[in-house]
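## retry 2 of 3
previous attempt timed out at serialization; input unchanged, resubmitting
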Amino acid sequence: MAKPKKYAKAVVPTLDEALEISDDLKKELETEIKESFGFDDFIESHRTAQEILEETNKHLDEYVAAYEKNKKDREPVEKVYAFKIGILNNMAKRFHPLSEYGKAKLGEAVKCRMEFEALIGPMITRITKNNIDLFRTVLSRDVAEDIASGRLSAIGAVRTKKGTAYGVGALAYYFDEIGTEKVVRIIWLFVNKDFRERGVCNQLIGELTYRCARTGFSNISVEFPIGITDTKLLGYVLGTWQFDLDSGMDPDSVMKVGDVTGYEKIDSCKKGVQALSDLDKNGSDLIVKKALRKLAYRGFLTNTDLSKDYIDRSLSCYFGDEGAVKAILLAHKTPSGILRVEYLGAEEGCEALYYNLISFFMQKAITSYEDDTLLKIPVEMEELGSFIEEICPKQMGQYMIAGDMTKPEPELDLSPEDVAKIMAV
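## retry succeeded, writing output
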């Protein structure tokens, strides 16, 4: 894998989009901000940032008073609040967003956002199936469906333009566990091009980071493909949030139905596997619930918002009988046409049954779908990867950028009190 690139310089929101004040004061403040966030000396930059916050608060009071007087246009006061939140987020990033000091500053940013929302209306909101239409322009079809079904959690940013509210940014994620460690995995982050350079992306990351810090999640990870239009921009932003970035191949196997060649191997391995579609709906639902409970799988099909029709029963299968399922494969056909294995699990000691389940899944795809239909299968272990390669030597891979934000080293985990003492020197 390539050596991860470090990004140390913080992103500064453009003052032109944030404050509508005199040109002279605007230039003066803009110069101070850019210089302050370029300093190697963290303390000096934070001292300057505090001064900028005090100046911003003066203008904030003016805009709030103007809004309360006419109650018509939220856009000017929204820009000032967004600017203040951006400064607080940048202060958190300069040390480390998961340090005690960083978490305190992220908390101040969230408090500022809540103050705005109590006065005017939503700025950051949870995306659900009830409000997802507002965010369609910043979500892919697959991600939107996964959010609506409950498979993914998401938060979205709301901004106004000429009196109209828009869903301008979205961040989608899911929860995972590695041993005893709780992990949040970001799989989608996008901001409408018309609303970039206004701190939206940073606010979404800041909100999620703060929520994670408060609820005991010690690790946040992110993954996105190399080659998308905004790879460099996204990589830069994530780097400023202390994500340790690296690149490599997506570990999942992706192949076309027409490239599957190991028919004899599939026929011999699929024996004993049964399709969920062979049962009535109640029976298949019961099998899934029993299997997942028995296999201690968390986070999927335990969400009450999840649609029961999400699983494609003709592609999903299990090994065992209705009273004692030993292994199960759950699959779904996405709106883009990919046949995606959502879960592949087996009892301890029965991992060899993965081969049986995948063989059944592949046979269903071969007999039911077009040759150019894509299959996506998670590779749980090296032996499984070798088995899939034997059945389908011609596979597709995608280079990905992945990153992890973990807690800072103890000596760098500064508290607000620590910073105050240092700044007083």
